Amino acid sequence: MGWKTIETAPEGVIVVVGWLDDEDSETQERHDFDCKEDGVWMRHEDNFQEFCSVAPPGSRGPRETAPYTHWLEVPKIPRAS
Asked: In 38-74, at which residue ranges do the beta strands (DSSP E only) sit?
């Protein structure tokens, strides 16, 4: 179970998404959970829309397009014994 390119991410399934933040020289690696519906990353879209509606002009926030480059399946939680 390794990282897969974002173009191969399934729709309608919550996955772990990853990308490198080139603006952070100390800790570039980023991870989140998101779900793609009709080609749109839902969590990212919600965050972007909220930023656009409340942030003052000139604020730095999420880009319009999700920065994700890779994804992983979320493994099933094992049953307690």
From this structure: 40-41, 70-73
pTM of the predicted protein model:
0.82
Backbone Cα Rg of the chain: 15
pLDDT, tens digit (0-9, with 9 covering 90-100), for 63-72: 899 999 999 9
Token pair belonging to 43: 């969590």
- In which order are the strands placed within the sheet that holds 40-41? 4-5, 70-73, 14-20, 29-37, 40-41
Q: What's the rounded Cα separation, in Å, for the pair 20 and 74?
A: 20
Q: Torsions phi, psi of 38, nearest 5?
A: 50, 40
